[in-house]
TrEMBL record:
<feature type="transmembrane region" description="Helical">
    <location>
        <begin position="105"/>
        <end position="127"/>
    </location>
</feature>
<feature type="transmembrane region" description="Helical">
    <location>
        <begin position="334"/>
        <end position="354"/>
    </location>
</feature>
<keyword id="KW-0472">Membrane</keyword>
<feature type="transmembrane region" description="Helical">
    <location>
        <begin position="31"/>
        <end position="49"/>
    </location>
</feature>
<protein>
    <recommendedName>
        <fullName>Integral membrane protein</fullName>
    </recommendedName>
</protein>
<keyword id="KW-1133">Transmembrane helix</keyword>
<feature type="transmembrane region" description="Helical">
    <location>
        <begin position="139"/>
        <end position="162"/>
    </location>
</feature>
<feature type="transmembrane region" description="Helical">
    <location>
        <begin position="274"/>
        <end position="300"/>
    </location>
</feature>
<feature type="transmembrane region" description="Helical">
    <location>
        <begin position="182"/>
        <end position="200"/>
    </location>
</feature>
<feature type="transmembrane region" description="Helical">
    <location>
        <begin position="206"/>
        <end position="229"/>
    </location>
</feature>
<keyword id="KW-0812">Transmembrane</keyword>
<feature type="transmembrane region" description="Helical">
    <location>
        <begin position="69"/>
        <end position="93"/>
    </location>
</feature>
Length: 400
């Protein structure tokens, strides 16, 4: 591989890591290696989910929760089902990054993908009594979808979203210190009113999902109306000198010399990609904030709201709680109330981010700056490699 082609691939990988695969000209290469992080995420998540559904699938679950050791192990597994797949996918992405550049790692990637299909099929046959061909076709279809999504760049956006979610976790302290105090003063009083508990006790999980979806749609529409103005300022593809200087030396060292900020306007696909990045970033921030609020009120409810109080409010004994098909050691009424409070708080958080100047500077402006630096990189990429990348095919066979 020539030095120029390697530089081109490094720049293209930089765009993919920033969630902008639409900027890349040419075809995705070494798809089997690129699909490994997604396969690892699904494999770990499905394994832990199957463990949880096996141990909580009978009437003795409540009795087993009285055992402190079982409760600890179950809680660790429940938390691990959200954490371990992300960590595994991150490690797999680090493994795949260099190998995708120079067409290495094809054989181990094929072994991993095939192992996922075989082991998953056998597990479904043993645990869920699925038929061989039905289970095998399900996994083959799933892997085929992952290949297709990776080929069109969705895998890059999802990978970026996962990394962005981890970065948002680092800013939990900022979120809680700046956005939560005033909100908690308002919502805490409402949390202890009988009316909200009565409503929560009388609606089904399906209705609660519709309520959460309603809040999500409102948030999305509000953000899209704000993004329309932001994208108008970005759609020309122009980049400033400051953003050129912010480009990293790896991979742009020596490539940006002599390149000005002028570049062809963003294509419709690139504009859609930019809007999606803005929307995903803000929704991830909102999701992290919602998780913090949800966890805070779950702890508060567990400590301050006894089952007798819940019974007096909802006129029946508290029912066992469930999240995503998995039983949790909390009442269903408490889960519903906390979900509603978290959804309302998140809508308030989103409105505050884009309307309050202090919150906008902290949470929103860095996202716009991220995109403007990407536009500077796009100008360099198109000036140096655009024409050749558009005609370059997958002319090299991957090597193990």
């Amino acid at each position: 591989m020539s030095t120029s082609e390697l530089d081109s691939r490094k720049v293209e990988q930089w765009f993919r890591r920033r969630g902008l695969p639409s900027v890349v000209r040419g075809l995705e290469q070494n798809l089997t290696v690129r699909v490994v992080p997604a396969v690892v995420w699904f494999a770990l998540f499905e394994a832990l989910y199957k463990v949880l559904t096996v141990v909580d699938g009978d009437a003795a679950f409540e009795q087993r929760l009285e055992n402190s050791l079982f409760l600890l192990l179950y809680t660790v597994t429940l938390v691990g089902s959200g954490v371990l797949p992300v960590v595994g996918a991150w490690l797999a992405a680090n493994w795949a990054r260099d190998r995708a550049l120079d067409n290495r790692g094809f054989v181990p990637a094929v072994v991993l993908v095939a192992g996922y299909v075989v082991v998953g099929t056998v597990a479904d046959m043993v645990i869920e009594n699925s038929g061989l061909w039905a289970a095998l076709l399900d996994y083959l279809f799933e892997v085929g979808v992952l290949y297709g999504l990776t080929a069109i760049g969705v895998g890059s956006i999802v990978g970026w979203a996962l990394r962005a979610a981890l970065r948002q976790l680092r800013s939990v302290g900022t979120m809680t210190s700046r956005a939560m105090p005033l909100l908690l003063l308002v919502t805490t009083f409402g949390f202890f009113t009988a009316e909200i508990w009565q409503s929560a006790g009388q609606i089904s999980r399906g209705q609660m999902s519709l309520i959460l979806g309603f809040f999500a749609v409102l948030s999305g529409l509000f953000l899209c109306s704000v993004f329309a103005a932001e994208v108008r300022g970005l759609r020309t593809g122009l980049a400033s000198v400051d953003h050129f200087s912010a480009l990293p030396d790896d991979p742009f060292g020596g490539l940006r010399d002599g390149v000005d900020g002028a570049a062809e306007p963003l294509t419709p696909l690139e504009r859609a990609n930019v809007v999606l990045i803005l929307l995903l970033t803000m929704m991830l921030q909102a999701l992290v904030f919602a998780m913090v609020v949800f966890a805070a009120f779950m702890v508060l409810g567990k400590l301050a709201v006894p089952d007798a109080a819940i019974k007096s409010w909802v006129s029946h004994d508290p029912t066992p709680g469930e999240l995503f098909g998995v039983q949790v050691p909390l009442s269903n009424e408490l889960v519903h109330v906390c979900l509603f409070v978290a959804a309302f708080s998140t809508l308030y958080f989103i409105a505050t981010i884009v309307t309050d100047s202090a919150h906008r500077k902290t949470f929103f402006d860095p996202v716009v700056d991220h995109l403007e630096v990407s536009l500077a990189g796009r100008a360099v990429y198109l000036a140096r490699f655009g024409r050749r990348s558009a005609t370059r095919g997958a002319d090299r066979q991957p090597q193990p």
